[in-house]
Write a structure and sequence with these properties.
single chain, Udp-n-acetylmuramoylalanyl-d-glutamate--2,6- Diaminopimelate Ligase, Chain: A, domain 1, UDP-N-acetylmuramoyl-L-alanine:D-glutamate ligase, Protein-Tyrosine Phosphatase, Chain A, six-stranded mixed β-sheet, 16 helices, globular
């Protein structure tokens, strides 16, 4: 955690100290007054729906100091008030200031799909030999990354930070905050199409992670993604590729499944190491592969890195086996067309004796073509080895329609809410059955998981 004085914050944000002790120590940053802790600097953000300045007094009952763009020069208080023109910009300025305090390699991870799991897998590989600090939870935005920078653990030897965007222009801010020595782009999908309109625009935005890369830094791109593969030789930084293609610098070969695990050979130059991956889905081969590649690039022990994946546990696609009842694959964190297809493959590839049941909810932020993207997911699903499809939500009806239009043998059911879905599943599932549940975070499909576990 950081420990800097209020006077340093004033310098970083080019602000004015209206009152309070400039030697007050700041231990952390906070943008949510409900989560304020002793020693925190409160940063009241002005959002579309409310202005957090109204929570300053409540925040300072616990916190150490506050920024403000609403108070005048006459404010009188015991704790420091730092006047700035824009609190959101000031948050970024503090992040830039904190980043310069670290003299360790920074790895920035972005992509339309798989960035959280990839960040976790890179960290897993590196933690076999190094002390690693990584993004916590979903603190990957222009608001979250400054908080991540404020919370780096003492003794960290490498940092792995996730960069998530929702609007054009945000990657420029994130690149400046992270200033990566190594950058990774996982793949280019259609998430946030509402704001970017085309995959080419998403590609352009994602690649801006290199804008503030170290001059001798390296960009790792997924060679199995056609848009990223097409960037070979066209970027102004050192670029290497990972994937399954024979031209990739770092490759996964001899990929096969052993029960719930994928096994493959990591290959680079004359090196070959077998990796046994404790994660569902063939797509996670690529996510772990780049972890192996970066460990190799940094000169770490590859056998240790490979061994670490045998006990990998991520926050996505949680496998919950309830003895005597059924198996649940909880993938309710978020959804996009690409991750929906990946989940279909996960379920279809499982060596289960019982029924395979898929629960899909709506996908959000897909723009004007949202119904089309849902329908295309259904078209992809129609010929897969899945027994039952359950949909919940208005947009997800298009997934079911596509399956039915294709004349698929998959049994289809539609329900109005998560409670109805849970009751249906409890009435039909047998001990050999497995259900995979996925949808956008706003659909709250985790309620179904909780009911099934309860």
């Amino acid at each position: 955690m950081i420990q800097i004085k209020v006077s340093e914050i004033v310098k970083a944000v080019k602000g004015t100290l209206l009152c309070g002790d400039p030697d007050t120590i700041i231990n952390d940053l906070c943008i949510d007054s409900r989560e304020i802790k002793a020693g925190d600097l409160f940063i009241p953000i002005i959002g579309n729906n409310q202005d957090a300045h109204k929570y300053i007094e409540r925040a300072l009952e616990v916190g150490a100091a506050t920024l403000t763009s609403r108070h005048s020069d006459t404010v009188i208080a015991k704790k420091p008030y730092i006047q700035v023109l824009d609190t959101e910009k000031a948050l970024h300025d503090i992040g830039y200031y904190l980043r310069r305090m670290y003299d360790i390699p920074f790895i920035g991870v972005t992509g339309s799909v798989g960035k959280t799991t990839t960040r976790e897998m890179i960290s897993t590989a590196l933690m076999s030999s190094r002390n690693v600090y990584q993004t916590s939870g979903n603190l990957n935005s222009t608001f979250g990354v400054p908080l991540t920078l404020a919370r780096a653990t003492e003794g960290a030897e490498v940092a792995v930070l996730e960069a998530g965007i929702g609007q054009p222009g945000e990657m420029e801010i994130l690149s400046k905050l992270i200033q990566p020595d190594i950058a990774v782009v996982t793949m280019i999908g259609v998430a946030h199409m509402e704001h970017f309109h085309t995959r080419e625009n998403i590609l352009k935005e994602k690649l801006e992670i290199i804008n503030h890369m170290s001059p001798d830094g390296t960009l790792f791109l997924n060679g199995d993604d056609e848009l990223l593969a097409d960037m070979r030789g066209r970027l102004p930084v050192k670029t290497v590729y990972y994937g399954t293609k024979d031209w990739c610098d770092y490759r996964a070969e001899n990929i096969h499944m052993d029960s719930y695990r994928y096994v493959y050979d990591y290959v680079h130059d004359d090196k070959k190491v077998t990796v046994t991956l404790n994660a569902l889905g063939r797509h996670n081969v690529a996510n772990s592969l780049v972890g192996m590649a970066i460990a190799d690039y940094l000169g770490l022990n590859l056998k240790k890195a490979a061994c670490a994946f045998e006990t990998f546990r991520g926050i996505r696609q949680r496998l919950i086996q309830i003895p005597g009842k059924y198996t649940i694959i909880d993938d309710t964190y978020n959804a996009s067309p690409d991750s929906m297809r990946a989940s279909i493959n996960v379920l279809a590839d499982l060596p289960e004796d019982g029924k395979k049941i898929l629960v899909f909810g709506d996908m959000f932020e897909l723009g004007a073509d949202s119904e089309k993207y849902h329908y295309e997911v259904g078209q992809y699903l129609a010929d897969k080895k899945i027994d039952t499809l359950v949909v919940v939500g208005d947009l997800a009806q298009n997934i079911m329609k596509a399956v039915q239009d294709a004349g698929s043998q998959i049994q289809c059911y539609s329900f109005k809410d998560n409670g109805e879905v849970a009751l249906f599943l409890l009435s039909v599932m047998m001990p050999e059955d497995v259900v995979l549940i996925k949808g956008s975070h706003g659909m709250n499909l985790s309620e179904i998981v909780s009911n099934l576990m309860g």
